[in-house]
Every structure is written in structure tokens, then in C-alpha cells.
Amino acid sequence: MFGRGRKIAPYLFISPFFVGYAIFFLYPVIQSLQLSFYRQVGLTNPPRFIGFDNYVRLVTKDALFIKALTNTTYYALGSILIIVPLALLLALILHSPTLRLREFFRFLYFTPNITAGVVVGIIFGLVFEEQYGLINNLLLAPLGLENVRWLRESRWIMPAVILLGAWKWTGINAIYFMVGLQNIPPELKEAARVDGATRWQVFWHVTLPLLRPILAFVLTIAIIGSYNLFAEPAILVGLEGGPNNAGMTMTMYLYTRGFRELKMGYASAIGYSLAVIILVLSVIQLVLIRAFRED
User: Fold this and answer.
1) Which residue, among 271, 269, 280, has the nearest Cα to 252 in the 3D structure?
2) pLDDT tens-digit profile of 153-184?
3) Burial class of residue 248, CB neighbours in 10 A (0-12, 13-18, 19+)
4) d(CA 88, CA 56)
5) In angstroms, what CA-CA distances link 33 with 47, 55, 75, 260, 273?
């Protein structure tokens, strides 16, 4: 009897985690998947099974969903093509052994990541203000350029959100890259230089291939974060996305359908469509950078 109790004890200790996981994550995920095949408006109305109609409507009839998907993809491309290269460049600079106060700069570039998205949105709402904003007054005015209506013209809204994202996420991504750079044996770089390789050749043929696991991680996190963007654009331009819904993201659209209009089945379909898009894009980028290749 005592021996049986000793065998059961470890499972009793870890059971609260699995019970909580099942109640607060697994059950909602399964319930949401089931709900995506129903039409339910409100919390008390009985759901009606409609099959794949919610998903078909998203793709063929919902222009606002396509708009939100386009805006979110725009931001994701900015994250991948602008923020990630900036982070890698910053990591290379901070990794330089001749740089003084490296630890201070590492802390400085990490702090935006621990700032709440709502606070960041409020601050950048002032930064992008047309008349008195920091960018227009300190950067554009001295160059003789006209003030940009960052949050009032549809063409400037997503560039403004990308600039915000660059401020918030470049630093933490640079720290990820720095960890990878520190784990590269210096002997490999020295051997390449002895063989006559230039700095660019050392970076392209030695450093970058050895950073592949970190690059895969950063790109995956960038894709997931981009398609889950909510707080910052919601604070900057509101849940409607500003003029012509130019700042509407997929999570903002999901929130509008689910918690404002209480279209629970339709919102569940949006959520699972978002999950599938993130999964597909993550796998594609992992294949493109050959993350599964064994060297």
C-alpha cells in the first residue's frame, strides 16, 4: 500500500498543472473549433450548425477580413524585412569587443520589450501627432519637409505602426542574435580570415549559417507577433482601424466580431484562420532558411 502511494504521489503533485491546462486552454481551444462550424449571435442564443459557411464567407464575401489580412501581412513584411535586419545589424555592433558600455546598451535596448503595449501606443500617439509630434517637429521640419499626417491618412498608418514595432522589438531581437553570436567559436572566423576571406565573406559563409537556429526562432516569433498585433494599433487609431480601416489588424477584427457584435461562431472561424495562416507561414520560412537541414 505504501509503495503504491509513492508511485502515485508524483502524479498528484503535477496534476494541478494538467487540470488547469485542460480547463483554461485545451477545452476552450476545442470548444472554439467546434463553435467555428456554427452560427451563434450572442451568449444565450442556441448555436445553429452551418458547416464551413463561416470559413467560406471569410474568403469570398468579407471584404473587411481581406483588408485586415492585407494590413497584418503588410506589418509582418515590415517586421521581417526591416526589424529583423536592423536587429541583426545592432547585434553585430553590440557584439564588437571594442565597444564600451556594452552591458548598458544591452539593458537600454531591452527596456522597450517590458513596456506595456497600451503605454507604448499612448506614447507613440503623441510622437506621431501631426502638429506637435516628435517626428514631424524634430526630424521632418529641419529638413524643410511638410508634416506627415501619420494617423490621419490611410497610406501612413501602417508605416507608423512599423516604426513603433521597430522601436519596441529591434532591441530584444538584437539580444537574441547576440546570444547566437557569442556561441560561434572565434576559431572558425580566424580560420576563414587566414584563408583570405573578407569581412563580408566571413559574415555570409560563417556567421550567418551558424546563426540559422537563432534566425529561425526570431523569424517565427516575428510572424507570430505580427499576426497577433492588437494593442498598439488599437490605441493609435482605434478598433475601427482609422481612415479606410487602414490600421485594422486580424486580431482587432476578431475582437470586433466576437466581443462587440457577439458573433461567436464567426469570431471562432477568424481565430482558427489566423492560427492556420501563422502555422503555414512559419513552416514556409523554416523551409526557406533550411532550418531542418543537418550540417
Assistant:
1) 271
2) 999 999 999 999 999 999 999 989 998 998 88
3) buried
4) 40
5) 13, 12, 27, 20, 10
Query: Among the residues of 183-259, which ranges form H helices?
Result: 186-194, 199-202, 208-210, 212-227, 231-237, 250-255
Going by C-alpha positions, the residue among 231, 216, 230, 191 that lies closest to residue 289 is 216
Nearest Cα residue to 241 out of 110, 67, 92: 67
**The residue type at 230:** F
Residue linked to cell 563580408: 200
Burial of residue 170 (number of CB atoms within 10 Å: 0-12, 13-18, 19+):
buried
The C-alpha cell at 50 is 452551418
Alpha carbon separation from 283 to 225, 274, 278 (Å, rounded): 15, 14, 9
Specify the range with the lowest mean pLDDT, choosing from 166-170, 226-230, 249-253, 288-292.
288-292
The beta strand positions in 31-134, using DSSP E, are 38-39, 48-49
Cell of 254: 476578431
pLDDT digits (tens, 9 = 90+) for 124-163: 998 898 888 888 887 776 777 778 888 989 999 999 999 9
- Among 223, 259, 225, 222, which residue's Cα sits nearest to residue 239? 259
